[in-house]
Amino acid sequence: MNITYSFDVSDVSALSRRIAVSSSRYRWARRAVLLIGAAVVFSAAWPGEESQAPFWAYMVVGVFGIAIWAVLLWLLTRFLSPLLNRFLFRKAENPMFGQPVTLTLAGDYFTIESPHSSGKTKWSLVHRFDVTSTHAFLFVGSFQAYVIPRAKVVSGDFDAFTAEATRLWKLYTSRN
Fold first, then answer.
1. Helix (H) or strand (E) holding 63
2. Distance in angstroms (rounded) separating the CA atoms of residues 55 and 63
3. What is the pTM of this model?
4. pLDDT of residue 159
5. Closest of 175, 164, 154 to residue 106, by C-alpha
6. Per-residue confidence at 46, pLDDT binned at 50, 70, 90?
7. Which is nearest to 15 in space by CA: 164, 121, 130?
8. Helix 24-45 vs helix 9-22: angle between axes, to the nearest 10 degrees?
9. What are all long-range contacts of 106-112, with beta carbons under 8 Å and residues at least 24 apart?
10. What percent of the chain is modeled with pLDDT above 70?
């Protein structure tokens, strides 16, 4: 069974978002940044010895400061990441994007072929296999995956392919 699809820089952004959603290390790093920002805001807003303002005013400033910090953190991760991916992968210059990629399931391994490369990967090396409504992700590492976009499938049935890939992954990996 095989599937052919094209790949774009937006799919790299989808992988970044999937890692962010599913990685506990990433979530803890975001929490740490939020807590450090909160500590900085509270220390800047804390009243000094000669302060004449009421205590509640400093608490309001601190709470608004934390809210602003959280919104800025969300904006950075939501909108800056796709811009960085476009810059890093140079969509217009990168021959990888827009080319047909064929992924074939063959027993205890799968092959991936494109006009520029080809490879064979055993299912036992696949760390995780996630399927969302828009993409399928074959993780071969914590931050590295083959991304299969549903909307860009040229030939083959996405749902049948992911069902068979899920079956093979569960059959040949010992992580389940």
1. helix 55-75
2. 13
3. 0.60
4. 92
5. 164
6. low
7. 130
8. 80
9. 107/168, 108/168, 108/172, 110/138, 110/165, 110/168, 112/146
10. 64
